[in-house]
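hiii so um. not sure if this is the right channel but i have a protein structure encoded as tokens and i wanna go backwards to a sequence. like what aa goes where. can anyone help
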């Protein structure tokens, strides 16, 4: 089962972990990675050093062709309370240091070539709402809620986050979440498309695992290519030549030949990502 720090699919620790520091923990096992936010006493709020660690983990995972899926989750009662507000200074510097690093970190998560699943083990607040939105899929625990309080703090949200909200949820939902700053329960988040599934706590890992299994059943070359293409289409940045190139590479791939053979032989395919 997938959980805050270990899972059946993702249970191997490595040199990139530091459980005592409070920094995010990365576990990789059997082609699946779990990245766990690790400040439960502070609702997993993100400090500059956490963002730097997340960026390093994302760079590491982007280079690993053997990792097929990433699960992002948190420890404790909350998924994440967003960026540490106390570290935001007034004036121009506030847009170029921590907050800008936060934006870059979330954009790096969205840009990961491998598919990503956010396991929302509890409430999600502030910038963490965009961190979760940057994942390809989101599964929330029953009873969780979301709140984006930027306007109540006097903050204007960063551009790529606004784009993500509008492109994924639509303008009306984005205005509701940003401008009203209300607390939105899990059932409503499911209805508006922020969540892909909601599960009681005892079923959360099973629900996440089913998504992980479905993603791992796909051909990696096609899966990664279509993720990139869909995100580019959503941002209005799609280049037809690039999309056609991805289409052609999949058409000439060993994975397609294996997929066709497996279909004809009525057996599960064994994809190699090439």
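sure thing!! here u go:
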């Amino acid at each position: 089962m997938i959980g805050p720090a270990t899972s059946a699919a993702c249970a191997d620790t490595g040199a990139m972990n530091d459980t005592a520091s409070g920094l995010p923990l990365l576990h990789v096992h059997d082609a699946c990675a779990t990245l766990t936010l690790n400040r439960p006493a502070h609702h997993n709020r993100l400090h500059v050093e956490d963002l730097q660690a997340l960026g390093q983990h994302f760079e590491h995972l982007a280079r690993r062709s053997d990792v097929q899926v990433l699960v992002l989750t948190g420890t404790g009662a909350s998924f994440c309370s967003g960026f540490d507000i106390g570290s935001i200074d007034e004036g121009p510097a506030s847009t170029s240091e921590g907050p800008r690093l936060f934006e870059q970190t979330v954009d790096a998560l969205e840009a990961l070539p491998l598919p990503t699943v956010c396991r929302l083990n509890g409430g999600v607040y502030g910038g963490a709402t965009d961190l979760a939105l940057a994942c390809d899929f989101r599964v929330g625990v029953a009873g969780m809620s979301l709140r984006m309080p930027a306007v109540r703090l006097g903050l204007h949200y960063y551009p790529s986050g606004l784009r993500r909200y509008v492109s994924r949820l639509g303008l009306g939902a984005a205005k509701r979440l940003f401008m009203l700053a209300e607390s939105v329960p899990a059932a409503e988040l499911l209805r508006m498309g922020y969540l892909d599934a909601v599960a009681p706590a005892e079923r959360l890992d099973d629900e996440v695992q089913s998504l992980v299994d479905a993603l791992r059943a796909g051909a990696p070359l096609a899966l990664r290519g279509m993720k990139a293409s869909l995100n580019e289409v959503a941002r209005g940045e799609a280049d037809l030549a690039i999309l056609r190139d991805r289409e052609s590479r999949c058409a000439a791939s060993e994975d397609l030949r294996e997929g066709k053979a497996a279909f004809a032989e009525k057996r599960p395919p064994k994809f190699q990502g090439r």
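oh and The two ends are 29 Å apart (CA to CA).
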